[in-house]
## 1
Amino acid sequence: MKVYFGDLHNHCGITYGFGSLENAIERAKSQLDFAAFTGHAMWPDMYEKTPETEFVVNFHEVGFAKIKEHWEEIRKTVAEANSDDFVTFQGYEMHSREYGDHHLISMDDNLELIYRRSPEELVKDCGVEAIAIPHHIGYTPDYRGISWDKYNSQISPVVEVFSKHGCSMNEDADYPYYHNMGPRDTRNMVDEGLRRGRHFGFVGSTDHHAGFPGSYGDGLAAVIAEERTRESIWDAIKARRTYAVTGDKILCDFKVNGAWMGSEIKSNERKITAHVETEGTLDKIVLYKNGKPHHVINGESYQKTNFQGCYKLRVEMGWGKQKLYHWDGVMSVEGGQIEDYNTYFRGRSVLAPSKDEAYDENNINDICTQSCLENPNRFTWSCDTTGNKSTLHPTVSAVVVKIRGDLSTKVMVALNGKTYTAAIGDLLEYGYTNHMEYYHSQAFKIYKAVPESRYQFDLELEDNSPENEWDYYHLEVAQKNRQMAYVSPIFVRKEE
């Protein structure tokens, strides 16, 4: 089993988003294992057109007509993008005040674009095997938040719990809703659905509206599958072997009695195990039982440093002016080697059309997102960034590189002619920043290195105290940089 990361819910110019489908596919291929490209297709109970709603109704109607007119070519383009290195799924989205918004996805390239009033009718009548994933579920009931009364786990094995809209886990979770659709509502949170006995897994996706699937910090779906194929990833989603991450590709392995996340098992004696590998400094890992903290691992308890082994080094780029800025980066290692890396590239941040902003219809995110491990001692990357929208809305991009060596291993980082060299031992104590110009310019930051003794964590415990007919356990991981993982529950039935 391996962990694969993807984006099952994002938008581009095939409906009322921005950017071409071709560019969206290229952005996805640059840093994801799989993706769907889910154009907006219908809103059966849309508001009536009034002077107040005219702008919203109009851009929806134009978008719906656009995907209908071009569905055959969209479907063909997505099908042709599927390969051994990158898996695509077909899909589109239905808005609904009554049921909450869902995106329909299928691994079958014959998925038909049909129009129905409910997600259940869509799944039943679309002509192929499909599922409907509820998203931004936390909005007010009858205001496009989920309806737990009408939720159907048979058509929706997983629920999107994080995206650009925010986090839907519970009332106190980080990342509240601040889109103009309104605040999140306690009645429509994940914890309410679980409390009411619904069984589902967790995924994240970006809901990006400008042709950049996988844009960093907007949400991703993690899937545990045997291989990177449509069939294997599809089976894993249906089995709920999934979890959501906000951005950093945190690795999570979570089982009860050897059964994977998402499983339903029967036992009064529960052996709980988990392995977590973070991408940065740990804040905490919380094991929840029936919505309440059952066991907590505190990151502050892990201060030891391994003198040899693996270390993670994050390099972040951006800042400066709003115009597009190009970066060429090189990391080389002496006295060690590069074992792995992850890229965290961002696109221009767009969630929906606005009266006040205009965007390039086709090329908004025709930007550079490239990386290559040329050999075990040299990693290169190129990307484009824009200046941060505000002090609370970063648009920086980053790479995280795993290096095997010891405290004397030397690392050289070069970005656009600026070079810094240091030993791992020094990087454990100090980071480094540099600016490309003197004043208000683009800049980069090399973070303090994180040793494997502070990014690998194991949990093993027993719980032999059933509380309900069905108990549910789930895991949450929080890093100090506010990057999170929400791991699907395991449902355990009490033996009589």
## 2
Amino acid sequence: MGRAFEVRKNSMAKTNAVKTKVYSKYGREIYVTAKSGGPDPDNNLALRRLIDKAKKDQVPAHVIDKAIDKAKGGGGEDFATARYEGFGPGGCMVIVDCLTDNNNRTFGDVRQCFTKTKCKIGAQGSVSHMFDHNAVLAFKGQDEESVLEALMMADVDVTDIEDEGDMITVLAPHTEFYKAKTALQDAFEGIEFEMDEITFIPQTSTEVTGEDVALFEKFLDMLNDLDDVQEVYHNATVA
């Protein structure tokens, strides 16, 4: 039923593994989420998801607690979300999500990453229409029918279910994330998710080859070195 779990995981190009400032970036996002939606994870589902994600990426508890305590105190920095889109090396499509307290600075920094690697930053919406904004829930299992039944019983709007041997991947609209996850946890006691994220999944892929490979790696490294960059998504496959 489509691409395998590992291929999908790679194609989403989440770059956390190569981020040199991952703790700082998680701390900022947790602070913003707790400040906007409240510091109690039981009442702020977005915060709960983010904390779970941070723990999976081995972010220390004191980093998480410090960010939440900072949000409780009020005041502090005012961050806003910013999204930039464009075309990377080899013509691949790129989405860059940021949290910033200075839009002019962040735009200049991101644009420099594009221009210094011979890439082109585009207008808002220039490539995002070629990505699906989905909830992705992947876990070990083999009974696709029982998974679909559990989701349907909970009235979850399912986009697709992929069964790749011993791994099942559920795709749903990003707005259905909590509903889908709760339905699966209720139906399958002790379920452990290999992936439970809201992300951008490319509808097509672009192969990056030759000299563009090194340029592509440099491009990602430059973006990941920026404090304001939270996530980078692309549709590149490196040959």
## 3
Amino acid sequence: MIDWKQGSDMKKGDTVFMYVGAPVSAILYQCKVIETDIPCDYRSKELTITKLMKIRLQKRYKPDQFTFVRLKSEYGIFAVRGARGVPNSLNCALKGK
């Protein structure tokens, strides 16, 4: 279990898929949100964090399973730049349905 920067719409019980950028460029983890709205006051030139969420790892994916190339060609995802929704077809594939 780890603390992670909280997206604005996250709530306890949500599923979070974590994408790792270059050179991996793939979704590698499925996590469950355990707790939200943990106060935080972190500021740097690149990043400001005011709230954290506690997440628990549920599943790992192989680096070649949900690559950016596949996300683009099969699921219409052309950029990964932070928290975003997941198309239903990709959600089902990630959850093995």
